[in-house]
Amino acid sequence: QSRIARTIAEQLQARISAGEQAAIARPPTTDLVANELYQRALPLEYALPAHENLLEGIRLLDRAVARDPNFILAYCALTRMHLTLYGYGYDHTPERRELANRALQKAERIEPNAGEVHLERGGYWFIGFRDYDRGRAELELARRTLPNNPKIYFLTGLMDHRQARWTEATRNLERAVELDPRDMENLLSTAYHYEGLHRYAEAARMFERALAVSPHNYIARLGRAWQSVHERADTRPLRTELNAILAEDPTAGPKIADTLFLCAVIERDRAATERAVAAIPAEGIPLAYEFVRPQAWYVGYAAQTFGELEAARIAFTSARAKVEKTVREQPDYAEAWSLLGRIDARLGRKEEAIREGRRACELLPLSKDTWDGPWHIRTLAEIYAWVGEKDLALEQLSKLPQPHGQIVYGELKLDPDWDPLRGDPRFERFVESFAPKL
């Protein structure tokens, strides 16, 4: 691997720093079995179903470092996978975050000044604590020995758009793509960044670039199709893409269940909604940096959308028990509070729902995160709408920073979340303010 890397650099006449030359010359491990385990684990970091693959990746990496306790890159990968389990809501517990820290500490003991260690420590402070100052400081240390590492720019960009530094976020994410134009995480995250800024044409082009790398990637295919929904409230490209994916692979349903469900309910298609619910895994669906939504949430949502109120009550009550348990165990988890508030609003538990929605906003205010924080403002607006407080709902909607992907024309126009506000002239004017300009 070192010889190949050196040959490629020479062929490209690349300028390589002394630190990068040393990194090329140094093998990550001399244990071939440990290296094989590491190489098998790496693709699992982004494979679907994510929860199962991440756990399997961790098992493989644990075996790798047991064989070679000095395998620093394996410890770094362990750190990332534990943080992904934590950040994506599969296991949002201090214990999981501490497992990431322990793996990182072992890497630090081996080579405390390694750029890879500083890179992962930057991710640890960012994902584990939303501590942007410490995260940025670690990334700057990483940059000294890894000046061309795309993940440094990638993580910096993600922190930028959580601090409303939109221009810097765009520049850093684009630089990450430039440095590694085949990395799907870079490509997809940059696409979502543009989508969040309502720059739909640029988002679509980035999804196209991702598809040029991985033509059958479900996330990229559906991400591209969502743009017409967000911008113009047109579900036809999304429905066409969903049908095409299922025609190619009839077993794909659980992997795309969330989009199957959302498309069906905004189309008010009862049969399609029932098929989507049937595809939802028993453990529910985790969404990026949100709580894992129980299957019962979707059952209740579907039933309520189509007027089956008793079935909705039973399902929401079941979902509530699971989410309430999470809130008790993880009282600082804003995403869980948000979902509990949404459930209680639909169960008619007005005071509890409002309190829970407000608690989520307190835990993750805009001052702490301008990318994920608006989700909780949007959720509180939805809660107010469902408990009959229309004035307060509209007040919350007016607080959402613009442009921001948590509120888009297609969602306002089609989503059942806003049904209690439909017909109110103030809401209709708000919706039309997002309509595409002809």
How are the SSEs ordered, and which strands pair?
Elements: H1 2-11, H2 18-25, H3 32-41, H4 50-67, H5 72-87, H6 94-110, H7 115-129, H8 132-145, H9 150-160, H10 166-179, H11 184-196, H12 200-213, H13 218-232, H14 236-248, H15 257-266, H16 270-279, H17 295-305, H18 309-329, H19 334-346, H20 350-363, H21 373-386, H22 390-399, H23 409-414, H24 425-432
Helix pairs in contact: 3-4, 4-5, 5-6, 5-7, 6-7, 7-8, 7-9, 8-9, 9-10, 10-11, 11-12, 11-13, 12-13, 13-14, 15-16, 16-17, 17-18, 18-19, 19-20, 19-21, 20-21, 21-22
Question: Describe it for me?
Answer:
The chain has 438 residues and is mainly alpha-helical. 70% of the residues lie in helices and 0% in strands. It is globular and about 65 Å long.
Uncertain runs with pLDDT below 50, 5 residues or more? none
Structural class: mainly alpha
Dominant shape:
globular
SS strand fraction = under 5%
Question: Compute the gyration radius: what is it?
Answer: 23 Å
> What is the helix tally?
24
